[in-house]
User: Which sequence fits this backbone?
């Protein structure tokens, strides 16, 4: 595979030097990547309609709310409001854990990694 990779890379570099990529349609615009190869064919249209309607699966909506509440807790100066928001955050974490087979907090290593490192450095 390395051999073919090098040939392809050399041909791309030659084309760039020759200026073959300068006038391509869509140059400078973001790519529209819609890879639905992993979605079963019978579900593709339904997924596309839901995506265009800006609908998310319930699990992702709950995750979005958890992230929003985490940011809110970090920014709240009032202790009473922070406590109220943390209760709401705990409710959403519980709701997410009910939607999944395992705890969502265990999967989110970015929450626990700093705490583990802090404990290890402290000992």
Assistant:
């Amino acid at each position: 595979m390395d051999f073919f990779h090098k040939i392809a890379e050399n041909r791309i570099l030659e084309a760039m030097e020759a200026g073959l990529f300068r006038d391509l349609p869509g140059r400078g615009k973001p790519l529209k990547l819609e890879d639905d190869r992993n979605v079963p064919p019978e579900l593709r249209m339904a997924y596309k309609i839901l995506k265009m309607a800006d609908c998310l699966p319930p699990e992702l909506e709950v995750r979005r709310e958890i992230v929003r509440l985490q940011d809110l807790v970090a920014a709240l100066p009032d202790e009473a409001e922070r406590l109220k928001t943390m209760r709401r955050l705990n409710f959403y974490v519980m709701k997410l854990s009910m939607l999944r087979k395992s705890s969502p907090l265990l999967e989110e290593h970015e929450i626990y990694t700093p705490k583990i490192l802090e404990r290890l450095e402290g000992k």
Q: What stands out?
A: The helical segments are 2-18, 41-52, 58-75, 79-99, 104-107, 109-122. The mean pLDDT is 82. The longest helix spans residues 79-99.
